[in-house]
């Protein structure tokens, strides 16, 4: 089955056809660096990571751009609230985001452009929109996009602007689609902006949020590129406005495929600090979560459906990670004794079809886990041939290159525990089962579990 993706713009699944053979230009809306990114943000970021990994697996050369929004209403407010320079705030939270991204085993974007480095390109784009009469200036130095000048405005979110009440314009970055309005491309300087200001031909000020992504994506990927992703909350007004200003500025199509992930619920409801269910990655690390356990919770549901993250599901997700990691360890021991080839088991075709069906991760995971259960039994029964072991290893590596659930830890084993393990090995050699069991119980009391395998004793930390 060929890759099909649900295109939000067309509101249907479409066969994926890149603009250029073998190459995908991918733009994903990154963090607004005024605070720590939370688990809801990472639901979207990890879906985008999955998409990129699958595209790479299919053989595409993917150029991935993720922007950093380091100037907007929120970042300026945070800087003012803390009475510090804007870059103090944005550098702090950009650094924290990069640490979280690395810890969650996400593949970094090829570029992380920061909005403040692209002000000149934004000014140039706004000037083009003014010259083409898609925008107009206000007395305070602001510039607004005229949504009535673009006949296709509202196509992404199925919005009929002629049938809705409109006010003249809006200066805020975020607003609801109940009353579509002309939006700010450039915001004239106000006293509360302080020294956060740039000069433009029409007056000093700063860019609006929406023009930032258009300028950065077009500069990195060209006027017309393949895929633009984000959370469903970005569809309006952000992505709707991106389309309008980009198409009107360049006179060309902007993006072929728009992909949006649904909201993340926490414990079945909306995430809220007042409800005590608002989690950053550091919060979850402090609660004992592993990166793999978080990845499993966020990828086990389809990206276009609401899923519920829960602290109470930690045990369940930990067990899944443990099973996959144990299977990896089991196979890694077996392949040491065989010659590897490039074969794959027949079940890979079903797995691939599920992933090609708009990244159907629930189905793909179900296929993999059922296969893993069957293969584990065969391995323990020594009923797999060398060729089948090689195929299983290849499929497992493909699976992990997509989901990254395997947890490989370098155990630091205290000398005392090593001595107990050696004594137990000697007892088993001498068939002193009573002593072997006694040492096993002592190890468990000390926080270690020992498993007896054909390859010898395997130690795990409880």
Concise structural overview:
With 462 residues, the protein is α/β, with parallel strands linked by helices.
Structure description:
- The protein has 462 residues and is of the alpha/beta class.
- It has three domains: 16-261, HUPs (Rossmann fold, 3-Layer(aba) Sandwich), CATH 3.40.50; 315-403, Up-down Bundle (Four Helix Bundle (Hemerythrin (Met), subunit A)); 415-461.
- It has helices at residues 39-57, 73-82, 86-103, 119-131, 209-221, 235-250, 281-286, 291-299, 314-334, 347-356, 361-380, 386-403, 415-429, 433-445; strands at 4-7, 12-15, 23-28, 61-66, 135-137, 143-145, 169-170, 182-188, 205-207, 225-231, 255-261, 264-266, 307-309, 448-453, 456-461.
- The strands form five sheets. Strands 5, 6, 7, 8 and 9 form a five-stranded mixed sheet that branches.
- Helix 1 packs across helix 12 (386-403).
- The radius of gyration is 27 Å and the shape is elongated.
- The model has no long low-confidence stretch (mean pLDDT 93).
């Amino acid at each position: 089955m060929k890759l099909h993706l649900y295109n939000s713009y067309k509101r249907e699944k479409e066969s994926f056809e890149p603009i250029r053979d073998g190459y995908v230009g991918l733009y994903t809306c990154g963090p607004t660096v005024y605070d720590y990114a939370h688990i809801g943000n990472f639901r979207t970021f990890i879906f985008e990571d999955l998409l990129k990994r699958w595209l790479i697996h299919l053989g595409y050369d993917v150029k991935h751009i993720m922007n950093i929004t380091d100037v907007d209403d929120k970042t300026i407010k945070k800087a003012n609230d803390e009475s510090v320079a804007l870059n103090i705030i944005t550098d702090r939270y950009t650094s924290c985001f990069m640490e979280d991204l690395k810890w969650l085993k996400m593949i970094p974007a090829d570029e992380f452009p920061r909005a403040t480095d692209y002000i000149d390109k934004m000014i140039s784009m706004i000037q083009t929109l003014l010259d083409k009469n898609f925008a107009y200036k206000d007395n305070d130095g602001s510039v607004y996009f005229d949504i009535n000048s673009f006949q296709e405005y509202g196509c992404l979110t199925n919005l009929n602007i002629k049938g809705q009440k409109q006010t003249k314009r809006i200066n805020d970055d975020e607003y609801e689609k109940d009353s579509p309005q002309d939006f700010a491309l450039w915001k004239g300087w106000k006293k509360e902006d302080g020294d956060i200001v740039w000069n433009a031909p029409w007056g000093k000020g700063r860019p609006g949020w929406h023009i930032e992504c258009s300028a950065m994506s077009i500069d990195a990927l060209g006027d017309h590129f393949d895929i633009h992703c984000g959370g469903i909350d970005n569809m309006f007004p952000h992505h709707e406005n991106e389309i309008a200003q980009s198409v009107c500025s360049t006179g060309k199509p902007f993006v072929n495929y728009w992909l949006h992930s649904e909201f993340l619920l926490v414990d079945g409801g909306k995430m809220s600090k007042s409800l005590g269910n608002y989690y950053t990655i550091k919060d979850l690390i402090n609660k004992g979560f592993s990166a793999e356990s978080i990845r499993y919770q966020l990828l086990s549901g389809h990206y276009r459906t609401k899923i519920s993250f829960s602290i109470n599901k930690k045990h369940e997700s930990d067990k899944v990670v443990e099973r996959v990691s144990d299977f990896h360890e089991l196979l890694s021991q077996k392949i040491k004794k065989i010659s590897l080839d490039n074969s794959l088991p027949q079940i890979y075709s079903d797995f691939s079809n599920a992933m090609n069906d708009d990244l159907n991760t629930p189905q793909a995971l179900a296929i993999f886990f059922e296969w893993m259960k069957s293969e584990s039994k065969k391995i323990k029964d020594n009923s797999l041939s060398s060729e089948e072991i090689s195929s299983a290893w290849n499929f497992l590596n493909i699976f992990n290159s997509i989901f990254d659930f395997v947890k490989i830890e370098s155990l630091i084993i205290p000398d005392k525990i090593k001595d107990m393990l050696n004594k137990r090995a000697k007892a088993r050699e001498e068939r002193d089962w009573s002593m072997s069991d006694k040492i096993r119980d002592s190890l468990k009391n000390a926080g270690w579990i020992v498993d007896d395998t054909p390859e010898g004793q395997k130690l795990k930390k409880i």
